[in-house]
Amino acid sequence: MSPAEQAHGDLKLSGLHKRYPNGFTAVKSLDLVIPQGSFFALLGPSGCGKTTTLRMVAGLETPTAGTIEIGANDITHEKPYKRPVNTVFQNYALFPHLTIAENVEFGPKRRGVKDTRSQVKEILELTELTEQAAKKPAQLSGGQQQRVALARALINRPEVLLLDEPLGALDLKLRRAMQMELKRIQEEVGLTFVHVTHDQEEAMTMADTVAVMNEGRIEQLGTPYDLYTNPRTTFVANFLGRSNLVKGTVLGREGSGDDEVVKVDMHGTVVSIKAGRVHTDSSEGWIGIRPEKVLIQPAGTPVDAPGGYFAGAVVTEASYMGTSTEYRLRMPWGQELICFEQNTGRRGGLVPVGTQVDVSWRPEFAFLLDSSQDAEAGLEED
Amino acid sequence: MASLQRVFGKNAAYLLIGPAAIWLALFFLFPMLSLLTTSLSDPAGNPITGYDLTWRIQNYLEALGDYWPYLLRSLLYAGIATVLCLVLGYVLAYAIAFKAGRWKTVMLVLVIAPFFTSFLVRTLSWKLILADNGWLVETLKALWILPEDGRLLATPIAVVAGLTYNFLPFMILPLYTSLEKIDPKLNEAAADLYASPFQRFAKVIWPLSLPGVVGGTLLTFIPATGDYINAELLGSPNTQMVGNKIQALFTTASDYPHASALSVILMVMIVAMVLYYVRKAGTEDLL
Amino acid sequence: MTRLGRWVGKHLMITLGLLVLLYMYIPNFIVALMSFNDASQSRNLYQFQGFTWDNWLNPCDPLGMCESLRVSISIGLAATLVSTIIGTLAAFALVRHRFEGRSTMNLVLFLPMATPEIVMGSSLLALFVAAGFGGQLGFWTILIAHIMFCISFVVVTVRSRLGGLDSNLEKAAMDLYADEWQTFWRITFPLVFPGILAAALLAFSLSFDDFIITNFTSGQTVTFPMFVWGAAQRGVPMQVNVIGTLMFLVALGAVIGGEVMSRRRARGRVRAAS
């Protein structure tokens, strides 16, 4: 019986903890269920514990505590070569002394499959590598090597396929193409893919479910749409796209059910935030709004949004980027906000730097985060 | 490796390192100890019956008093040869690393290839090149560089030339390894920032090649100091180095205690100089 | 400036480099030339007397020379075999394990490379004499000494190859259902093998060419370098130059052959990359 048939079902991590001998805790009591057949992404900055998590699932790292199960089988202490799990390594780790075909049949051969020819042929076709079968890895381009790494893992039909920054070494264009390709292959074979990446765009375009990791913990888990539109922490708000975060004082709640809103005083103006988008109980909070939801209009002309607006902002910077323009606005209280505006042509030009503008947004797009969190968390340092 | 560790358990490392450790302990460290005790033994014994350990420090004083010119000559010849090797070796290593293009591998092979001919045979051929009636001496005489009765063979020049020739590859290979790692774009960047060719070399290439310079000079200087073959084959009794003396004391004179004392002095001298030099060059991680 | 001047300026370093290389080859030219020297007429052996094939046709004429060659080759092979095995194991220990005494071991391995041969040779002689083996110096004592100084060079060579090995390859093999032994024999060993081979070649050439340490530990046994040394006092037979030239040609042929083979393999690689 092949390892792939021993265990079936969801990948379940319970209380998974990893502390290195040097005292660094990479993963902190992680609980996670990855449904069978899903395309799951672990997203986070380097050092957040996502790769350690992956390596523990692969068996290349031993957890300090906790269990890893596939279906009803506990594989926590199983050796790597006895797990129904395969990995696509970051730099592919193709065996340089073996041909592509030999690399691909390595797994089946070790598992005692006598005739691997048809399997190899099939998988090389799926990954469009048939013509490269007799070549050595060094003779292939980056994209081809990437596909070999994928084929070499897929041929084993693992319960879970782990992808460790699989596209990190490719250039942008090839990366976009391979993202589509990976998605297509995953849908075709129907295996569980766990994809580790620090590229938020990659995670969002490919995965059904994304878990954002930070400092060994999962900050938030959900569909790419949920994560982006309704982030629960400042880290997620900043790491996934960009956010304007403005300090506000909670005044109270109004309404009930779906219409329940929290009223927040923001530097003298009262804004309403839907209760489902409020992620704090304290009396202060960060009011968050995505830059593309921010609307501006030169002072004195009507603003295209319901409710109030903030007057007295000044455009301090305008960067034209073709499809959109990024404005920096100095608010009356001194803070700078960012606004992305689609260049629809409606305005007939850019808003010049120094222009007095009114600022507004639709209240249903705002969110409220806990004021004890760092407003700069998750911002990429550069 | 990690997987072998699982097979052999925790002691895998010791099983693997054991044979090398035992061999080097028995036939390198232990002999050194033996050399030390012999150097402190009574010279009255002989190699067949052995020597009595009498902690005779005088052996050292006598060795130093009698043979200090040999030690000095060794350091001088080896020092000059090392500097010559550095100049010649740097030129060739630089040419291979930056100018050889696709001939890089070929030139590297050509550097190593001569050394497959036994080095004694090659050193003997210098006797022919430097011979009194050879074309080199005749040419130098014709050019008035060498006086009418001048000669090359059996002079310090011949010994230093032999040392330089013999240890050149030990200089070239570490230099090449260092130079090869330097991105040629650094040179271009320095040129872009107004550095003249000489400044580019002095401020960019040379400092970055220092590990190779340190490694190469050590690999040249250490064996050159202990060498006695070049002095024996190309020199005269007046150009003998400390190696000649140690060898003669061991073989013809059978005076093991003094020979051992001289060996220990040479070793200590070299270690002291190497440590000083390495510290000065700031590359202690080399050791 | 003239065109010639510009050319020299541009190619100064490579020209100087080639001159240095030429200098390194002068003795080899002389050795090759002298292998055709007809020395039967004169006793001045350091001058070219006349052309002859005799030396090449009768290489074993000089008494004891080919016997010394045989001794050198057997010692070289034995020393290579033992030092390569011992050194390779040690290299694995040093690269793949963190154990107590590791840094001491690194130092002990470095020392023989930093010690003048005359000191090592004399210390071995002192030991053998002190241990009462003074009368039994010969094949075995030479072999022991050669293995000793070859080990360090083997360790350094294999260690650098092993250190450059991507440890992910072994992890990938384990991920692909290879157990520890399969991973070692199918992935680790084949990838480290070129380093082991290079180490063995180095060990052989070191052992074959050694004179100073051998001279101290040989007793009555005569290796090829010792034969040359002994002959140098009386006058070297021209056949020594035949052996020298032959060794050079064999080594060069082996290196060029290996290079041609790896180029042939690389050619397809270049095509795929472009």
Automatic annotation (TrEMBL), chain A:
Q: Where would I find the ABC transporter domain in this sequence? A: 11-240
Note the InterPro entries from the entry.
AAA+_ATPase, ABC_SmlMolc_Importer, ABC_transporter-like_ATP-bd, ABC_transporter-like_CS, Mo/tungstate-bd_C_term_dom, P-loop_NTPase, Transp-assoc_OB_typ2
Tell me if Acetylation is a UniProt keyword of this record.
no
PROSITE patterns, A to Z: ABC_TRANSPORTER_1, ABC_TRANSPORTER_2
Entry keyword set: ATP-binding, Nucleotide-binding, Transport
Answer yes or no on keyword Transmembrane helix: no
- Gene Ontology CC terms, in alphabetical order: ATP-binding cassette (ABC) transporter complex
Q: Per UniProt, what is one GO molecular function of this protein?
A: ABC-type transporter activity
The name under which this protein is listed is ABC transporter ATP-binding protein
Organism for this UniProt entry: Demequina lignilytica
TrEMBL record, chain B:
Q: Name one GO biological process term.
A: transmembrane transport
Q: Name one Pfam family in it.
A: BPD_transp_1
Alphabetically list the UniProt keywords: Cell membrane, Membrane, Transmembrane, Transmembrane helix, Transport
Annotated ABC transmembrane type-1 domain residues: 71-277
Q: What CDD domains does UniProt report for this protein, alphabetically? A: TM_PBP2
In terms of InterPro entries, this protein maps to: MetI-like (IPR000515), MetI-like_sf (IPR035906)
* Record has Membrane as a keyword: yes
What membrane topology does this protein have?
Multi-pass membrane protein
For this UniProt entry, what is the primary localization, expressed as one broad class? membrane
Has UniProt tagged this entry with the keyword Transport?
yes
What GO terms fall under cellular component here? plasma membrane
Where found in the cell?
Cell membrane
| Listed transmembrane segments | 12-33, 75-98, 105-125, 153-176, 204-224, 259-278
Q: Which family does it belong to?
A: Belongs to the binding-protein-dependent transport system permease family. CysTW subfamily.
Q: What protein name applies here?
A: ABC transporter permease
From TrEMBL, chain C:
Q: Which residues form the ABC transmembrane type-1 domain?
A: 69-258
Q: Does the keyword Translocase apply?
A: no
UniProt protein name = ABC transporter permease
Specify where it is mainly localized. Answer: membrane
Where found in the cell? Cell membrane
Q: Which PROSITE patterns does the UniProt record give? A: ABC_TM1
Which UniProt key words apply to this protein? Cell membrane, Membrane, Transmembrane, Transmembrane helix, Transport
This protein's GO CC annotations: plasma membrane
Coiled-coil ranges from the UniProt annotation:
none
One Pfam family, short name please? BPD_transp_1
Parts of the chain that traverse the membrane? 12-36, 71-95, 107-131, 137-158, 184-208, 242-261
* Similarity remark: Belongs to the binding-protein-dependent transport system permease family. CysTW subfamily.
